[in-house]
Design goal:
About 40% of the residues lie in helices and about 20% in strands. It is α/β, with parallel strands linked by helices and about 230 residues long.
Length: about 230
């Protein structure tokens, strides 16, 4: 795997006591990512914004859905800037590119520009979702993985793969080593949303779901160790 798209949930950056962003968590993630980058792996990152604001919840409360989703897109930019800063302090050159133009804080996402940054050894953080309402950051991750020609879409979670039920609530949950795209859709498994899974299926993009929050796991996965669950 020479080029990867890493999808990190916004909640992953949250701290204890309900803090939306914990700098120490960002630093720990950045250290793992930087270690892999130093091996020559080209990395794109899509980070969610659910730790700060979930557009869908605001929409349910009565906010106009496009407006609520735009609020969520802005939250992803905050998280991307947080992680970008943590990576820069690890000595890694980064660029934040966003689907929502805000030229004073990030570059607009242009596919060829993103590819050029990666060729120059920079980690790119892709914020703002797809730039459109009604699409999740899962779908944005699938779309960007295809656009940058990633070898795999890696979804980072706090559990070690995909289970038939929530392993944090049920100790009898069974983990899958490998699944097909159709299995995920038919069983309604909580891997990524249906749009993202379908997009990956149609374009042959493999998905790996694993626990990023055990130190060194990202490096182990890229070295070929059998961790997590593959969807392909």
């Amino acid at each position: 795997m020479n080029r990867i798209l890493l999808k990190i949930s916004g909640e992953a950056l949250g701290g204890k006591g309900g803090a939306p962003v914990d700098p120490s968590v960002a630093d720990a993630l950045a250290a793992q990512i930087a270690a892999v980058h130093q091996r020559g792996v080209e990395i794109g990152i899509v980070v969610g914004g659910g730790n700060i604001l979930r557009g869908a919840l605001f929409a349910e409360a009565g906010t106009n859905r496009p407006t609520a989703d735009q609020m969520g897109m802005l939250a992803t930019v905050i998280n991307a800037l947080t992680l970008s800063d943590a990576l820069e302090r690890q000595g890694v050159d980064t660029r934040v590119l966003t689907a929502v133009e805000m030229n004073q804080v990030a570059e607009p996402f242009i596919m060829r520009r993103a590819l050029r940054h990666m060729e120059k050894g920079r980690i790119i953080l892709l914020a703002g979702g797809t730039g459109n309402p009604f699409f999740t950051t899962d779908t944005a991750a699938a779309l960007r993985a295809m656009e940058i020609g990633a070898d795999v879409l890696i979804k980072a979670t706090k559990v070690d793969g995909v289970y038939d039920m929530d392993p944090l609530k049920n100790p009898n949950a069974v983990r899958f080593d490998e699944l097909g795209y159709d299995e995920v859709l038919e069983k309604g498994l909580n891997v990524m949303d249906a749009t993202a899974i379908t997009l990956c299926k149609e374009n042959g993009m493999p998905i790996l779901v694993f626990n990023l929050f055990e130190e060194g796991n990202l490096g182990r996965v890229l070295a070929g160790e059998k961790l997590g669950t593959w969807v392909r």
